Amino acid sequence: MAKVLTSEVLAGVPHGFSMREGLESADVLAGAPLVKLKQIHSADVCVMREAGGDVREGDALVTDRPGLLLGIVTADCAPVLFADVEAGVIGAAHAGWKGARAGVLEATLSAMEDLGADRVRISAAIGPAIAQASYEVAEDMRRQFDAGDDRFFAPGSPGHYQFDLPAYVAHRLAAAGTGRIADLALDTYANEAQFHSYRRATHRGQPTQGRQISAVALP
To answer: What is the pLDDT of residue 61?
Structure first.
């Protein structure tokens, strides 16, 4: 079995954040089909009732059906896994800066509530993502954020900033009323032995197809 990372805020919920080698259903919940999306850096959420069928587009999945393994792939963007244990509702979101800025996290919470969850009971775990020290962005990206988001941008090289994606994701979750939030605080860019990083591979002119998988299920 592959080594997977877990978060204490999701204790008792089958889940895992993969490392470089990825994960399979047996690493999280044996026999559960892995359901994924064609991710498009959006705020679109898909309610999953069963496995199979055409692959849908979006950047978050939610379900109240036991035995489905909701999976997302990332390689610097933030994977976020959600659970309301009392309601029996889970979710998984792919939160790059575009999706987080567009509201994918809030949309996931709302979709979970539509299935009977209560956001004050929802726990959210932020998995491995690019950290602020590794994430230089240009002025044109900074201008797409509000003045109130200044705290997530530290001065960088001339005309550039260091963006704190995990902190921004945690802020959006907290502002939306999420009950419990935890960040694994693992930098995909800096930890080459553990994680794929799209940005690191791009900087080195290497293949960029490597991804981590993050998944959650109801037993």
So the answer is: 98
